[in-house]
Amino acid sequence: MSYPPAYKDALQMQDVAVHDALNPETTPTARATIIRAWEALERLKREMRGIPPLKAIDSPKWPKRARARLLPESSAIEIESKESLTEPDRDRTARPASPQSAG
């Protein structure tokens, strides 16, 4: 398949853009600009080949009830009573057995 000269030019410009983006001396701002230019060239190449443009990804709009059903049960938060928050746990306050009595 033979590509038109404009398509070959777009390929060469993309190669130069990738080379410049991978250069360690290129600043992050310049890299972002290069990436945007590369993306524009990619869109232009798609149009030249007659491929329709990519569609944006739409996230489904779920009702609140459906979202609640999709959440795992482990994500539910249990609220403790005030008594359990104020009273110390008796198992934690018990003194550990001395090493002499264990042996």
Structure explained in plain terms:
The protein is mostly helical and 103 residues long. The chain has a domain at 27-53. Helix content is 58%, strand content 0%. The longest helix is centred in the middle third of the chain and has 22 residues, at 28-49. The radius of gyration is 31 Å and the shape is flat.
Brief rundown of the structure:
The chain has 103 residues and is mainly α. Helix content is 58%, strand content 0%.
- Derived from helix and strand composition plus strand pairing, the structural class reads mainly alpha
Largest beta-sheet characterization: none
The total count of strands amounts to: 0
The parts where pLDDT drops under 50 for at least 5 residues are: none
- The backbone outline, from C-alpha atoms, is flat
Helix content estimate: 55-70%
Question: Over the alpha carbons, how many angstroms does the gyration radius reach?
Answer: 31 Å
Distance between the termini: 86 Å
